[in-house]
Amino acid sequence: MSNNVKEARLAKSITQEDLAKSVGATRQTIGLIENGKYNPSLHLCISIAKRLDKTLDDLFWED
Amino acid sequence: MKKSWLLFFLPQDEFKEKKLLYFLAEALVLFILFSISFLLISRFFNFKESSGVLLTGIGLSIVSIYTILRYILSGIEYTSVFSKADYKSEVKKISLQSIIFMIIFNFISILFKGAPQGKENWIDIIGLSILIVFFLFLMNYISLKTSYLKNKQIEKDAGQ
Fold it and tell me: Where are the membrane-spanning stretches (chain B) (predicted)?
């Protein structure tokens, strides 16, 4: 599933490691999510969206 | 909402947690298949009473060895090792851990069994510890290598 997590993270100048720590995940998991290789749970999606100050639509809705 | 006592033993990261649950479930299926096969075979052959202990041991070995192997080969243990420097640093760490383990193992062996008498007993204790440490190091090294390769692949995919 493609998403905009990487773009949103880079726009906020946050590293994968920092994002991972703040949402209780690992850098590997964040990398897999950004590459669309792992579909996170709704709970993790919300944590990522809150950390990046985005809505779920901004990050995960496909046009 | 997740409610299971198993969560106490699982990692916080949900990807790792999910993978581990898959490995445990697969191991359980293998254990059930093994048990069913044994039940069917035991209808045709008369096993000794003591073979029950042996078969329980085999069953438990299937579950533990399968889960450990799947975990090691999945590359999910060292989730932050992305660079060559991280990798080399972790190799040093696991080498040091192995050496410390060997020292503690020998110390405890001597503490409980007493100082070995004669050359053969020394060889027995040191040989056993070297063997255990070798397998421990090998397991950690394979896990580190697969994790590093997986992480590099993630970075490569992100660059494309």
Answer: 20-41, 53-73, 94-115, 121-142
